[in-house]
Structure formats: structure tokens, C-alpha cells
């Protein structure tokens, strides 16, 4: 289980990027984190994976625990090794490598047998990737690249999969497919932390949601209840 308590992060400026943020993702749960540009969503994911330093950011308060272990004292590879895996924003697949090679890289730390088993599972989830196994990443459509980025993260056998705006720049029908796949991954027992600006999609695939505004949690609750709130209706669902 992921437990973030009173997290505060700064990039050195006068305003903190995150302040007093507390978020929980239960074992096998599905949680989303909503918020507009600059609200601090990516910063939160960077904090969990402990790669803030690369962006000159720093945790200045609070704690992040996964299954009781304090994550902010570990390095990124060891956090991945614990089963906390990120699908970064912008997909960041290796365009010159094939689908198959991209997937293999995601499973680097495992035995050959385990890699093959997990890859078959990924191909079951994404038949399109199997069809395109030998195609270079850069020749795939945006939706296919997003599927590949998710597939590559799954190769690391996550207990918790964190996705940073997977719907960004995708057509509505593809967004729906991405949502379905996230639901399926969660139903198989992987916990989900979904970062989205597309509240409609996020509320549809998760049970609980937090809204970040200016680096703070401004609203949280069961997704069914949040859908009914005026704030969500006005700001994120485009009606009301
Ligand atoms: P987006 O959807 O645009 O990625 P976000 O909700 O993920 O937005 P963050 O990227 O986490 O927001 O940004 C939170 C705040 O931290 C913003 O004010 C942003 O300008 C600042 N910030 C983010 N990265 C850096 C950085 N590397 N250096 C300085 N400030 C940064």
C-alpha cells in the first residue's frame, strides 16, 4: 500500500510545488489524481519514484511509504524493484527500438523465463502490440505508443502502476481503450495511481480520487460522490 503523508516539495522557488499532501492508494486499489496544469501532479509522481533531484526538486517535509518501507530514502531502481513502477508522461518509448525490444527493456531485472511469461501476458492484454512486435516504436500511432509504454511498465511486474496523463493527445475512442486496459490491469490485482486532466476518464476507471490545486489537495472522495460535486462538474466534466 502507498501512503503519502504531509508531503512538501520545492524546486527552490518561493512557492512550494507541493504542500501538506496526503494520499493513500490501498493494496489493489485504483485511485486518481486530478488537477490542472502546474497543480503538482507530476511532482507527486517524481517524489514517489524519488527522481526529483534530476529536476532540481527536493522533498522538504513529510514521508512516502510503500508496504511500510520509506521510499524517499531509496533510489529509483530499488523503488521499481519493490514493485512501484511509473508510465511517464509523453510515453517516452525508445522509438528506434522495436516493440519487442522496448518490452524486454522493461523486464531487464528478471530472468529470461519470467520475461517471456510476462511478455506473453502483455501481448494478451494488447494484441495490437503482438501484431507489431517487430515494428519500430516511432512508426506506431500515438495510441499504440501509449499501449507500449504501459506494456513496458507491466514488464517490471508492478504492484503499483502509476500513470502520468496517459490520455494526453489521444482521440476519444483511444482514450476509452486506454481506460479499459487500466481497469483490466487493476482487476488483475495491480494497484493504480492514475494522474489525469481528463476527469471523465479517470473517474470512470478509479474508485477514489484526489484533486490537486496549487500544490495542495483541495478535494477528495469516492469517485461516485465526486461526480456529483459542483466543483468537479464545473471544472472538469464540462457541464453543470
Ligand atoms: P502538468 O500537467 O503541466 O505536468 P502538473 O500538475 O504535473 O502539471 P507539475 O509539473 O508537478 O504540475 O508542477 C508543479 C509546480 O512545480 C509548477 O508550478 C511548476 O512550474 C513547478 N515545477 C515543475 N517542475 C519544475 C522544475 N523542474 N523546476 C522548477 N519548477 C518546476
Automatic annotation (TrEMBL):
Pfam families, from UniProt? ABC_tran (PF00005)
Q: Origin, by domain of life?
A: Bacteria
InterPro entries membership:
AAA+_ATPase (IPR003593), ABC_transporter-like_ATP-bd (IPR003439), ABC_transporter-like_CS (IPR017871), BCAA_Transport_ATP-bd_LivF (IPR052156), P-loop_NTPase (IPR027417)
Kindly give the Gene3D superfamilies that the UniProt entry links to this protein: P-loop containing nucleotide triphosphate hydrolases
Report the GO molecular function annotations: ATP binding
Signal sequence interval, chain numbering = none
> CDD domains, per this entry?
ABC_TM1139_LivF_branched (cd03224)
Q: Which SMART domains does its entry note?
A: AAA
Could you list this entry's UniProt keywords, alphabetically sorted: Amino-acid transport, ATP-binding, Nucleotide-binding, Transport
Q: Where is the ABC transporter domain?
A: 2-239
Family indicated by similarity = Belongs to the ABC transporter superfamily.
Instruction: Tell me the protein's name.
Output: ABC transporter ATP-binding protein
State the organism of origin: Gulosibacter molinativorax
